[in-house]
Every structure is written in C-alpha cells, then in structure tokens.
Task: inverse folding
C-alpha cells in the first residue's frame, strides 16, 4: 500500500455526528446517530423494518431534512452540491421497474454532475459511462431497456451509474433483496473489488448471515445507533436483541 | 379516397383548422409523454378544467386569453403544491380540491357576467373551425417555445421522472423542472382551447402518449409514436367530423381512443405472455 493510499484511508470519507430525522408532524425516525466510514470500507447497515436504514441513507444523501452534521471527504455538507460524492441507490420497489430507459442512459445520468443545464454529454462522458459499465460487466447491455434486466443485473447497472458519478461513497438500500444467492454472492464480490480500489460502501440488509460472512463491519440501528463494529461484536446476541427486540432463530442464523 | 381526404380543405377556414389541429397533434402528445410517464393524467385533466377561470378572468379584465389561461394553469399547479403539504391528504385529493375551486369559479364568472358574451361551450368543446390567422400565429409560437423547452431539458426530464432522488443528488433542478412541466401542460391546454376544447384537451394530452407507451420501451420512440398518433388523430378526426357532420373536438378525441384501443388489442397477446 502506498503512503498516499494509506493516508487517504486514515481520513474518513463519511463522518456523521448527532444525525437525527423527524418526519412531520412528530415522528422520530432517527436520533443522535454518530459514526464514520473510511475509504474502501464495506459496511453492512442492519436493523428491522422501519428502523430508519433508508432514512439514514436519504439523510446522508440530503434527500430528507435532518439535524446534526454530515461530512463527506472532510467537507461539511451544507448544500446539495456538497454531497455530489455520495451516490444513493434506492430499493428497487421505490422505482418504476418498467420505466423506458436504457442501461446506457441510466449510467450516463451519473455524469450529469459534470454537466451544465442543457449540456449534452460529450465523448469523454460517454467513455466514462462505458468504462463504468465495463467494470460491472454490463458493457454489452448498454442498449438494453433497464426493464429487461434481471435483479442482479439491475443492481450492477445502478452501481455503474454510481461509478460514472465518481462517487467516493455508495449507499445501497436492500441491494440484495430479490437477488438469488449465487448472484448476490457475485455482487458482493464486485462490491469487494470496488472497495479495494478505495470506494466506500454502506449496504442496508436484512440478511444477518450474509452480514456476518461478507462484511468486515456492521452498523446496527433501530432509530438510534445500537452497535457498530466487527460482525462478531455488532451482531452478538445482546446487540441483536437491542436492535431487533426479542431474539429469533433467524436472527442468530450464522 | 383522395377526394374524401382533400374535399374538406377547399375553404380557408378548414385549412386554418387543419393547421391548428396539426399544432395540437404535435404539441400535446410531446408533453403528454411526460404526463403519462409521471402519472400526472389527473393533474392534466384538472388543469384543463381549472384554466377556465383564467379564460373568464381574461375576458373580464381585457387581457389576452392566452395569458389568462397560462396564469390560471400555473396558479392551479401552485394550489396543488400548497394543498399537497397536508400530509394526511393524497395527491389526488389536493388536485381535486384545486380543480373544484378553479373550475367552479370559471363557470360562475362566464355564466353570470354579460361582458363575456361568449357561449360556455365555445371553451368547453372547442371551435376549431373559427380559428383565425392570429390564433395560428400565437399557437405556433407557443408550440415552438414548448417544444424547444422539451428538447433543451429532455435528458433531465427523463432522469427526474425515473429517479428524482438521484437527479437531485447530481445537481438537476428537480423543483424548477416540476414548475416547467406545469407551464408546459398549461401551454398545451391553451393551444387545445381552440381545437378540442378544455373538456377534451386531456384526450390529446394523455391518449396518444398512453397509446405509444403500449408500443415501445424507449422515450425517444415513444415521443415519435405519440406525435404520429396525435397528428393522425387530429387531422383524421377533423376530416371525419366534416363528412359525418359531428363536432370536431369530440370526434378528434374519439379517434385518439380508437388508436389506443387498436394498440391495446395489438399488444394483448404479447402482454399476456409477460409475467
């Protein structure tokens, strides 16, 4: 590892401090969440339904109003433009799966941060989108309608959009839901490869078994930060009970 | 057959009507693509009704009907945005309340005020055969402006419509684009005013684009097909109305629905096999 690379790993790509979200009129979704993520980290965010995982990602991305501070690559995020280095990939159910958009058009949307209003993407941007598609193994499918892709391919296409955006931090909301086991493992391999090149990942998942096997770090939340650390520590019986309530067999499944 | 197609257009007023039908046949489906993709058909319908208040207001104050109708359309969009802030209400309820306010106000203003002196049905059903050269110039300018805006913002409209969250993340002005779309719908309603009328304008706004959506999976192709359906419907409907002695507006609207029915039948076997 070079000195530069090592130094960049010492500075967090994301610092969240005292983060809280309250939906009107007075529904507390998140309170006082504090943690940081370093470049190249692959972090699982676990918690029950309604625990605030999606809200956490949306707050980091600036898509919901929040209090507390969010810092990306050392910069305080006061405005939406300060968060261009983070890419949020929502749950598939949040988007229209039949929407008429091709894979290439989707990925090119990631380049929009480098363009002015009404500016057409030039060769440089098209090449960057193509490179992103190549990294996720979808270069041959750039003309295909997104709706014709499988669940795993669709996640790869969204990942390519995030790579085209040159995001330092990628937030994936239930990325592995509805993806069969072999393809989920292949996706995790891909996340690992990209993480090794410095991109940080926060991935919300319900699958505690997967979190134990494939992630080096877990953040457990239930409206508040319950545990943060290695899977052994963050997913020990006491933390699981504090996160999910009464323990169940599936909660402890290894 | 050729005679059947050309006979109606021997007179100037029918040629004016054909140009107006062509304009709405191109404009409404182009905007309609975004209305259909964003599932805003009810908003489009409500805005066409709400525009009546602006038309009546323009007559009363002596300002241009075009400006009055545009102002009413934008007011309607803003009212929906304000009512939408009530989180206990659905979006459709917010639209319904705003529509009621604007449409009822328009009808009362028109029916109770002698200064207007124009039959309500003129606006509701359209009077394409009374289109003047001035109307054509104004409608052409409005159509050109609207089409230029769509061309300029096309990829941003696509990105916002598909994933508004990501669009905001990469710096696309999501809120202003929503206002732009409301203005575009208002322009379409204004141009529809003299052709199919307010009540039928949603037919041109929604049906050709919905027909195209059944037939294609690309927005560019969808726009082209929607415009083709719009032009065939508006000119075909106008021609048919001449021969059948039926009102042009509703006849045009029925032709759009016939196209939609044909597309539905044509795609039925394909969609049955799709899980």
Result:
């Amino acid at each position: 590892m070079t000195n530069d690379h090592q130094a960049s790993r010492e500075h967090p790509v994301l610092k969240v401090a005292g983060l809280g979200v309250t939906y009107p009129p007075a529904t507390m979704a998140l309170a006082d969440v504090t943690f940081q993520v370093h470049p190249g980290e692959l972090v699982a965010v676990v918690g029950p339904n309604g625990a605030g995982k999606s809200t956490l990602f949306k707050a980091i991305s600036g898509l919901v109003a929040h209090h507390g501070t969010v810092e990306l690559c050392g910069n305080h995020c006061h405005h939406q433009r300060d968060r261009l280095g983070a890419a949020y990939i929502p749950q598939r159910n949040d988007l229209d799966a039949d929407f008429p958009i091709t894979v290439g058009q989707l990925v090119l949307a990631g380049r929009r941060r480098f363009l002015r209003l009404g500016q057409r993407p030039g060769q440089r941007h098209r090449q960057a989108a193509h490179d992103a598609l190549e990294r996720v193994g979808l270069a041959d499918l750039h003309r295909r309608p997104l709706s014709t892709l499988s669940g795993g391919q669709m996640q790869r296409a969204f990942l390519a959009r995030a790579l085209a955006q040159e995001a330092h931090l990628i937030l994936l909301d239930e990325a592995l839901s509805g993806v069969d086991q072999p393809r989920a493992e292949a996706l995790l391999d891909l996340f690992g490869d990209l993480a090794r090149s410095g991109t940080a990942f926060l991935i919300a998942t319900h699958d505690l078994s997967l979190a134990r096997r494939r992630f080096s770090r877990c953040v457990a939340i239930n409206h508040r930060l319950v545990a943060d650390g290695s899977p052994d520590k963050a997913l020990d019986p006491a933390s699981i009970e504090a996160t999910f309530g009464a323990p169940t067999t599936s909660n402890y499944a290894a | 057959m050729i005679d059947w197609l050309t006979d109606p257009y021997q007179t100037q007023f029918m040629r004016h009507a054909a140009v107006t039908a062509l304009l709405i046949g191109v404009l409404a489906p182009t905007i309609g693509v975004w209305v259909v993709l964003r599932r805003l058909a009810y908003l489009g319908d409500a805005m066409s009704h709400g525009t009546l208040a602006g038309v009546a207001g323009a007559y009363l104050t002596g300002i241009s009907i075009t400006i009055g109708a545009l102002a009413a359309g934008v007011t309607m969009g803003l009212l929906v945005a304000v009512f939408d802030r009530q989180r206990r209400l659905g979006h459709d309820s917010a639209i319904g309340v705003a529509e009621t306010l604007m449409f009822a106000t328009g009808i009362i203003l028109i029916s109770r005020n002698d200064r207007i002196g124009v039959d309500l049905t003129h606006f509701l059903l359209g009077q394409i055969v009374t289109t003047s050269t001035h109307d054509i110039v104004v409608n052409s300018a409005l159509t050109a402006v609207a089409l230029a805006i769509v061309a300029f913002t096309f990829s941003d409209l696509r990105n916002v419509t598909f994933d508004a969250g990501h669009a905001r993340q990469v710096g696309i002005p999501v809120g202003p684009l929503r206002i732009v779309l409301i203005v575009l719908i208002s322009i379409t309603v204004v141009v529809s005013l003299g052709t199919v009328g307010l009540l039928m304008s949603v037919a041109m706004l929604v049906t050709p684009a919905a027909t195209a959506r059944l037939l294609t999976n690309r927005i560019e192709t969808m726009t082209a097909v929607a415009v083709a359906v719009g032009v065939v419907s508006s000119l075909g409907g106008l021609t048919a109305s001449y021969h059948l002695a039926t009102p042009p507006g509703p006849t045009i609207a029925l032709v759009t629905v016939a196209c939609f029915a044909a597309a539905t039948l044509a795609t039925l076997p394909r969609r049955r096999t799709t899980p």
Notes: The longest strand of chain A covers residues 27-37. Residues 1-7, 248-254 of chain A have pLDDT under 50 and may be disordered.
